# Entry
Amino acid sequence: MIKNVFVVILLLLSGCFVYLDDTPSRSSSSYGYGNVWLESPYISCSYDAYWDISDWIFEVHVDSYYGEQEVMEVGFYINNYDYQYMDYVGNGWWYRNIVSTYYDCDRYYHFDFVAADYDGFEGYYVYEW
# Structure
């Protein structure tokens, strides 16, 4: 209810439409070899119709057998093609923000999160939007 009121107020004040979707994924699953694992992915997207821009936020928690500091790299593929690196923000959390006119909030996307530690072990997490 509050979300709908917020959208209406934004429409009235700015003249642009904002689409917010914080619904959980349609399906997700995690894969790994026991040494690196990904948990609690969060993806949100807001759309500005006036500028035709989608603002995506990606977060995921990654840990390894030897601790969070042993995770070397985290990223994700969009529809098995476009790879995006993520930035470490502390306490095992990795973050990426994408502002795009190509990736619209209302389309289907397949996100493959990938993490690797310094010993070469990898973990995967599949998330469908």
In short: Residues 50 and 122 are 41 Å apart (CA to CA). The first strand starts at residue 18 and ends at 21. The chain has a mean pLDDT of 83.
